[in-house]
Design a protein that fits this description.
Blueprint: E1 3-14, E2 17-28, E3 32-36, H1 43-51, E4 58-63, E5 66-67, H2 73-79, E6 81-83, H3 96-107, H4 112-126, H5 141-154, E7 159-163, H6 171-186, E8 190-194, H7 198-204, E9 207-212, E10 215-220, H8 222-226, H9 229-236
Parallel strand pairs: 3-8, 3-9, 6-7, 7-8
Antiparallel strand pairs: 1-2, 1-4, 4-5, 9-10
Helix pairs in contact: 3-4, 3-5, 4-5, 5-6
């Protein structure tokens, strides 16, 4: 399988604290990979380095065959790396449509007419077309999560980073979101997904990896990883 994303000996230190410690990891094109780990394991720091919000203290990040280690976040976005945030970050004073329009124009770098068409199509896809003209700050949690996904998809990503997108949702709401994520993956988008809702991950991921203490301690098929004694000790506390 051709690698879409490769981390080569990537570390991140904050002063004397090492949060990510010489991580080697590869994501194949077309995969949907779940990442588990206890709080403080370094999961969000890892995403921030992939997205370009943080720079590695050492090591390299490759996207396809291109070294993107020193490339800025907005340029990575235009190369095809999109992300959502654990806590939704809409422009609350702008409408749902305007939020997605900004993503299409600045993220995918589309012209305004093309961006309008893209925004309308994405909102239809995630079920927010009927709320397009509502201020984003008035949305409920599920709609906020759907808007996060819509903004990311309007950037036309090849690689999508999902950061605990199922967190805080009811079981029924989670089902709605899982259907959308499955459709996104089936459309050809490679996905890396940090999540604490294990049942959600097990439904969709092709591979599961567990981060603890700044390093991956297990990776493989979900049922094998969840049965690993190291994973139980680090994540499940047994």
């Amino acid at each position: 399988m051709k690698a879409m994303l490769e981390l080569a000996a990537v570390s991140r230190r904050f002063g004397g604290l090492t949060v990510i410690d010489r991580v080697d990891f590869s994501i194949g094109e077309g995969e949907i990979v779940g990442i588990l780990g206890p709080n403080g394991a370094g999961k969000t720091t890892l995403f921030n380095m992939i997205a370009g919000v943080l720079s590695p203290s050492s090591g390299r990040i490759l996207f396809g065959e291109r070294d993107i280690t020193g490339i800025r976040a907005w340029d990575r976005c235009r190369l095809g790396i999109g992300r959502t945030y654990q806590v939704p970050r809409p422009f609350t004073h702008m409408t749902v449509f305007e939020n997605v329009l900004v993503a299409a124009t600045h993220g995918a770098k589309l012209s305004l007419p093309r961006a309008r068409v893209e925004a309308e199509a994405v909102l239809e896809r995630v079920g927010l077309a009927d709320r397009a003209m509502i201020p984003a700050g008035r949305l409920g949690l599920l709609d906020m999560k759907q808007l996060e996904l819509a903004k990311a998809m309007a950037m036309r990503p090849r690689l999508l980073l999902l950061d605990e997108i199922a967190g805080g949702l009811t079981e029924a709401e989670c089902e709605v979101l899982l259907g959308m994520i499955g459709e996104v993956h089936e459309s050809g988008v490679t996905i890396v997904w940090i999540e604490h809702v294990i049942q959600a991950l097990r439904r969709l991921v092709t591979r599961l990896a567990v981060l603890a203490g700044g390093s991956f301690i297990a990776a493989g098929k979900p049922y094998e990883v969840l049965a690993d004694a190291r994973v139980k000790a680090a994540y499940l506390g047994t």
